[in-house]
Amino acid sequence: MGTITVNIRVCRIDKPEVCADIKDVVVDTGSTVSASPQALAKKLGIGFSEKRKFTLGDGTTTVKQVGHALIEIDSKRTADEVIAIAKGPPLALRPWSISATRSTPRLGL
User: Fold this and answer.
1) Sign of the dihedral through C-alpha 43, 47, 53, 55
2) If you compute the radius of gyration of the chain from its CA atoms, what whole number of angstroms results?
3) Are the beta carbons of 93 and 24 closer than 8 angstroms?
């Protein structure tokens, strides 16, 4: 089984010039929202306007605040839903963002 990664730029919805470039972002094929480290979300000023309940892979549930960010891949942008996480990868992207930008991720074996 391989890992799918992509280089992205993540930006604020309301201030698209406020961005961060992130390399080798993991595409989490089981996720319904993208996940950003809390520090990155705070640095960019991403707002979280709603709460939503999520069921995790192990069957447990959690409630997270959901916000929105612009995701840019290969010079194509799309809006995406994001949650902030305390620990984990630099950013985990949901597959929807890849298809919405019609981009080709890299498959590492």
Assistant:
1) negative
2) 13
3) no
Please, are residues 32 and 54 in contact by the beta-carbon 8 Å criterion? yes
Name the H helices within the chain: 38-44, 95-101
For residues 105 and 99, what is the distance between their CA atoms, to the nearest angstrom? 10
What does 23-54 look like in DSSP terms, one character per residue?
EEEEE-TT-SSEEEEHHHHHHHT--EEEEEEE
> For the chain, what is the domain count?
1
**Residue 102 in tokens:** 């019609």
pTM: 0.80
Note the Cα 42 to chain centre separation in Å.
14
For 8, the domain range is 3-108
Residue-wise pLDDT for 33-56, tens only, equals 999 999 999 999 999 999 999 998
Distance of CA 107 to the CA centre of its chain: 18
Query: Which single residue is written with the structure tokens 């309301």?
Result: 14
Question: What is each CA distance from 6 to 49, 56, 87, in whole angstroms?
Answer: 27, 23, 20
